[in-house]
Design goal:
Layout (H helix, E strand, L loop, with lengths): L4 H10 L7 E4 L14 E5 L6 H4 L2 E4 L2 H11 L3 E2 L2 E2 L3 E5 L3 E12 L4 E7 L6 H7 L4 E5 L8 H10 L4 H20 L2 E12 L4 E3 L3 E4 L8 H5 L13 H8 L4 E3 L6 E4 L3 H13 L6 E3 L7 H12 L6 E8 L4 H15 L5 E7 L2 H14 L7 E4 L5 H14 L2
Parallel strand pairs: 14-16, 16-17, 17-18
Antiparallel strand pairs: 1-6, 2-3, 2-6, 4-5, 7-8, 7-10, 8-9, 10-11, 10-12, 13-15
């Protein structure tokens, strides 16, 4: 479960990691602006990245300017997320930006402390351009960092005496926060050094393991409770969650709705569509023999997405029979009369029965089914995907 920046900084304060002075403001607490020192930075509290480029991190020289900009930000959407809170912090005079993170290396299966003397940009870009700029320190599971180790790392980074203790303190406390709260990620990007030679965590990205939160009652005392990622869900994801449908929006501008069978092929479909130059809009899992009502609801999620121009579907009948899938698709089309084309492939258990259902429906309702194509096992899935991409690009 990801935390908002202000929540991450609450944990930082508790672990003695210095953060800029600031207050959290929503539509009912504008008066909190009386407590801050100007000039300030106004930071929209949303999970999506790219806040600076999107214009939802702003600056204000005085209270009047800050209030005006906050009112403009609150209620605004950034991607699929509505801005409900902003973090207002004292603006710092920055001399240098660093990167530091504690995370789990999924390949090595070990906790990892990662540092770089370049911060404020995507660490992936630095890794590609200059892999040697990133320092990595591996630990055993549950192993804590000692102060002498943190000081040694700060020394290896080359910090002078006036910054040595401050940087070592952040290294020590961030890694142990990561261990103590059983985090998936604890990241500061950037960790800044100000012109008066002080160290601050300018940003905070913390990802908790929701299943471990019951062991940390102090989180609840701070108002941090398990929310099952609800704060991150788009409207379609909320609808899907309520209906028990495994679904995720993957590209807000994606124009190919993905209606696959199981989760494995759902993931593969995203890769294949992207590989051949298309833009998938979503992940979805319709495997495990879902009911016809659930299958129709899944199609509805895709049809109701205004960005989706074509539906790519694939059913390999196993536990989920092809005829049940065909009945659900046909019933959806008869009930909703969708205009969007559907390019699909069906093979496996009860395939012939499923094909007869589609053929009879097309014979009885040719106009409704004129844009529905169902391919068989002898057409490679790659060709079906390529056709879906072509149709999406041709559809206005």
């Amino acid at each position: 479960m990801r935390l908002y920046e202000f929540e991450g900084k609450m944990l930082f304060k508790r672990k003695k990691i210095p953060v800029p002075e600031g207050v959290v403001i929503d539509k009912d607490t504008i008066s909190e602006l009386d407590k801050v020192f100007y000039p300030v930075v106004i930071k929209a509290q949303v999970f999506a990245g790219g806040r600076g480029k999107a214009g939802i991190i702003q600056f204000a020289q005085n209270r009047l300017e800050a209030e005006k900009k906050i009112i403009e930000l609150l209620g605004k959407k950034h991607g699929p997320f509505v801005i409900e809170k902003v973090l207002v912090e004292r603006k710092l005079d920055i001399e240098q930006e660093l990167y530091i993170a504690a995370l789990i290396d999924r390949i090595a299966h070990k906790p990892l402390l990662m540092l770089c003397l370049q911060g404020g940009v995507d660490i992936e870009e630095i890794a590609k351009a200059n892999p040697g700029a990133i320092r990595k320190y591996y630990f055993n599971a549950g192993e804590k960092l000692f102060e002498f180790q943190a000081k040694r790392i700060a020394g290896e980074l080359g910090f002078s005496s006036d910054l040595f203790s401050g940087v070592a303190n952040v290294i020590f406390n961030l890694y142990n926060l990561f261990i103590d709260y059983e985090c998936k990620l604890a990241e500061i990007n950037p960790l800044v050094i100000t012109k008066d030679r002080k160290v601050f965590a300018l940003d905070a990205k913390v990802d908790l393991d929701e299943d471990a939160m019951f062991r940390h009652p102090d989180l609840r005392e701070m108002g941090i409770v398990a929310r099952n990622e609800i704060g991150e869900l788009t409207e379609r994801e909320k609808i899907a969650k309520a209906a028990g449908i495994p679904y995720a929006d993957v590209d807000p501008e994606g124009d190919i709705g993905v209606f696959p069978g199981g989760a494995g092929f759902g993931i593969a479909a995203l890769d294949l569509i992207t590989h051949y130059g298309g833009r998938p809009s979503n992940f979805m899992d319709s495997g495990g023999a879902p009911t016809q009502e659930k299958l129709k609801a899944m199609l509805g999620l895709l049809m109701d997405n205004p960005k989706v121009k074509v539906i790519f579907g694939a059913r390999f009948g196993g536990i989920s029979r092809c005829d049940d899938w065909a009945k659900a698709v046909v019933q959806y089309i008869l009930e909703n009369k969708p205009q969007k084309p559907m390019i699909m492939r069906m093979a496996g258990n009860m395939e012939e029965e499923g094909r007869k259902i589609f053929e009879e429906a097309k014979k009885e309702h040719p106009e409704l089914f004129k844009n529905i194509k169902i391919y068989a096992y002898d057409t490679p899935i790659e060709e079906v995907i390529k056709e879906a991409i072509r149709v999406a690009k041709e559809t206005t």
